[in-house]
Amino acid sequence: MRDEVFITCAVTGNLTTREQHPELPVTPEEIANAALAAAEEGAAVVHLHVRDPATGKPSMELEYYKDVVARIRGRNKDLIINLTTGPGGRFVVGEEDPKIAGPGTTLTTPEIRTAHITALRPDIATLDLNTMNSGREVVINTPRNVRRMAAFLREAGAVPEIELFDSGDIALMRDMLADGSLAAPALTSFVMGVKYGFQPSPETVIYARNLLPADAQFTAIGIGRSAFPMVAQSIIAGGHARVGLEDATMIARGVLAPSNAAMVEKARRMVEDLGPRVVGPARAREIIGLS
Fold it and tell me: Is 190 helix (H, G, I), strand (E, B) or coil?
């Protein structure tokens, strides 16, 4: 285990709905307030998506990102901001012709998927390396496009957080490190619990960890009921921790999480009970290699 661990809070995500959790942050004000409250409970990093305030549906609108970031920075200049680049990779196969995108497709260019990173220059930006089945749809991140996205992140000064959904993603990451598309040491996360990707277990965490370069940082992320078990598994295996309403809606079996902050508070207790010290944004910046 590490002596020092940072906690990331994934505040709202792309898939959780108000039907699943009535207090899911949706408006820029709600998302920013949730991020700030999570920081008060020990989160050093907040991972942010935005939503259409009128519908609650996922959005890629730059103005919403600007609003959220400005609200957070206006009250907390130290908190590490991690913006997603995940939206824009989903393809829905058409009913009549599989080459024609069906309703719900978001697949778009690397330039559009990273436009908010270029504009806002966050500390961290996620970079998904998965091409995989996702429910009844497909997520597409081709090697060419993720290399282009990595270049835009580098130009914006954002450290990529490489999101890994299966072992092949780690092989692609290693190729990108070898050809200079990514810089070492890598900041990574294993997304565990998506139906057709890494499945959450101690064996999977150790297997994925052992495929990484020796100097890489990692967090094992649990989706749904595996959220808090993966906090423990990640820490025991030498990683960091992440929780939040993006990943799960329950704080215990059958108990809806009161808030993102409550989930962070539970994760912090778990980490401290296992032994490591939970660090704040300043030390987390040193660990990650942020300016």
Answer: strand
Cis previous bond, 103, omega within 30: no
Nearest by Cα to 263 from 234, 241, 287: 241
Q: CA-CA distances (angstroms) from residue 11 to 136, 158, 202?
A: 25, 19, 25
Going across the sheet that includes 137-139, the strands are 90-91, 137-139, 132-134
Going by the DSSP 8-state scheme, the letter that residue 199 receives in this structure is: P
Cα–Cα distances in angstroms (integers) from residue 243 to residues 88, 113, 257, 261, in the given order: 23, 24, 11, 10
- The distance from CA 279 to its chain's CA centroid, rounded to whole angstroms, is 19
Q: Which two tokens stand for residue 152?
A: 């835009």
CA distance 279 to 4: 6
> Residue 140 CA to chain centroid, in angstroms?
17
Could you tell me the pLDDT band of residue 258, with boundaries at 50, 70 and 90? very high
How far is residue 217's CA from residue 183's CA, in Å, rounded to a whole number? 13
The answer to whether the predicted template modeling score (pTM) of the entire model surpasses 0.90 is yes
